[in-house]
Amino acid sequence: MVARRQWSIAGQLFALQATVIILLVAVATGGAIWLARTDAQQAAREEVLSVAKTVAGTPDVRAALASTDPSAILQPYAEAIRVETGTDFVVVMAPDRTRYTHPSPEQIGRPFVGSIEPALSGRAFTTTNVGTLGKSVRAVAPVRDGDGRVVGLVSVGITTHAINRRLLEQAPLLLGAAGPALAVAGFGSWLLNRRLRRQTHGLGPAQMTRMYEYYDAVLHSVREGLVVLTSDRRVALVNDEGRRLLRLGAEPDLVDRPAAGLDLPPAVTDLLTSGRDAHDEPVLAGDRVLVANQRQARFEGDLVGTVLTLRDQTELRALTSELDSVRALTEALQAQTHESANRLHTVLTLVELGRTGEAVELATRDLTLAQQLTDRVVGAVADPALAALLLGKSAQAAERGVDLVIEPECRLDTSPLPTTDLLTVVGNLVDNALEAVAGTTPPRRVQVFVGVVDGGLTVRVSDSGPGLDAERVADAFRRGWSTKSTGRGLGLALVGQVVERHGGDTVVEPAENGGTRFTVRLPIRAEDGR
C-alpha cells in the first residue's frame, strides 16, 4: 500500500491563504455588487420620482385631463417623455385608475395596477410593484387643478429587469477591480510559500514534529555538552550533558536567557560572549578540563546563532600527564642506559689496563650520587607517589641538562592533601619551572621544597630562568597561559584550582638567582591530619 504523501507546511499555508483570499475577494465583490444594486435602485427611485413630479406639474397635462379625449393628447406626449428619459413607462391616469397612456396601447382605458392611495391624498411616493410590464420601481405623483384638487395621477416606472441590465453593464468594472486584487494577493502568497518552503525544506507538520522529537532525543542523549545560542547571544538550548559539565543542574529554565548572565566558568563565558570560532580549545570548568569547539551557524549567509560543544577530558588529561611523565622517565632511563654503557665500557677498559683503582673510583662516584638523591628524596618524603614523582622529575631534568635540587629542609612525613591534588601542584609547578629554564644558558637550576610550615602545607618551586614579568603575574594562573610562546598551558590553571578548592594562596615573586619563585600555601584542616 502506497503511503499518501503529506502536504508540506508551505503547501498547507499556501492553500489556506489562497482559500481565504478567494473568500475575501468573493465577499468583497458580492458586497460591491449589493451596494451597486442598492445604489441603482435608489437612483431609479429618484429618477422616476423626479420625472413623475415634472410631468404632473406640466400645465399641458392638467389641460389635457380636462379635455373630452385625454388619451389623444397625452399618449404622444407620454411616449416622448418615456423615450427621452429612458424609463419603461409613463402612465397618466384618472383618479379612478383609468389609464390615459401606456407603452402598450391596448392597455389604455384599463385600470392601473398598483398602489396609488398616497398620491390620491396629495403626496408623491415611490414603490415597487408588479404590473403589466413586470416588476418595476415606480413613482406616483398627483396632478392638481387650479383649486388644488387631485384631478389625475402620473406614474413613471423602470422595470427591475432594466435596472439589472444597467448593473450588468458595471460588472466589467467590478470584476476588473477584483481580478488584480486576487492576482496581487495570490502572487504575495506564492512568494511567502516559496520562502517558507526553503526554510522548512518542504517538510510537513508531522515530519517536522518527528524530526524535532528525534533531534531533541539525540541532543539530550549525546555524551558531549551542547550549548546553542541565538544571534543575539541568548540561550536556545543546553542539553543534559552540558548542564552537568557546566554545573547548571539546579538552574531554572535557561531558554532565552543572556549567556553573559549565566553562572558559568569565566573561560566558557568569554568564549560564548565573543562568538569566535574555537577548535579543540581547553577550558577549565571547576575541577574539570573540557575541550571546547565553537562555530557560528549561518543560513544563506546570515548569522542565526552559535554552537558550542564541550568534551570532558579530565580523566584523559590526567592519564596523558601520567603518560608524559612515564615517557619522560623512560627517555631519561634510556639515555642513562646509554651513558651507563659508556661508563661500563670505560671501567672495563681501565680494569684491562690494570688501573683498577681508577676503575673503582669511576664506578662508585655516579652510584653514590644517584643513591644520595634517592636516599634524600625517600627519606624526606613519606608519600611514595610524591617520592616517585620527584625522582622521575630529577631524571627528566638531568636529561634536559637541568639541575633539579631538592632543598635540604624538604620534609613531608604524611600528606595532608589527597595524593592527586598534591601531585597536581608539585608536578605542574616543576614542569612549569623546567619549561622556564629550557633554552637558557647554563647553569640551569630548579629548586623544590615540600613541607609543613606554620601549620600549613607549603610547596615552593624556583627556577633560574628569565623570570616572570610583573604585569603577567595576574595572568599566570589563567587558562591558556604558558611560559612557552606558543603554549596553551593548563598546568598552572590546574594548580590554581587546587589552591582555590582548599582555600590556600599563591605567591609569585622573583627568585634569588634571577628566575621566578612560585610558593603555594595550603591550610591543613583538622580532618586532614593523620
Mind explaining what this structure looks like?
Residues 483-488 have low confidence and may be disordered. The strands form 3 sheets. This protein has a 5-stranded antiparallel β-sheet with strand order 6-5-9-8-7, with helices on both faces. It has a 5-stranded mixed β-sheet with strand order 10-11-12-14-13. It contains 14 helices and 14 strands. The protein has helices at 9-56, 59-65, 70-85, 117-120, 160-169, 171-200, 205-221, 240-245, 266-274, 314-352, 356-380, 384-399, 419-437, 491-501; strands spanning 89-93, 125-131, 134-144, 150-159, 225-230, 235-238, 278-285, 288-299, 302-312, 403-406, 445-453, 456-463, 505-510, 516-523. The longest helix has 48 residues, at 9-56. By secondary structure, it is an alpha+beta fold. It is rod-shaped and about 180 Å long.
How much of the residues is beta strand, in percent?
A: 15-25%
Question: What class do helices, strands and sheet pairing give?
Answer: alpha+beta
The domain tally reads 3
- Terminal-residue CA separation: 77 Å
Number of strands: 14
**CA-atom Rg in angstroms:** 54 Å
CATH class categorisation of the largest domain: Alpha Beta
What is the N-to-C order of secondary-structure elements (H for helix, E for strand)?
HHHEHEEEHHHEEHHEEEHHHEHEEHEE
Second rung of CATH, namely the architecture of the largest domain: 2-Layer Sandwich
Low-confidence stretches: 483-488
Q: Tally the helices: what do you get?
A: 14
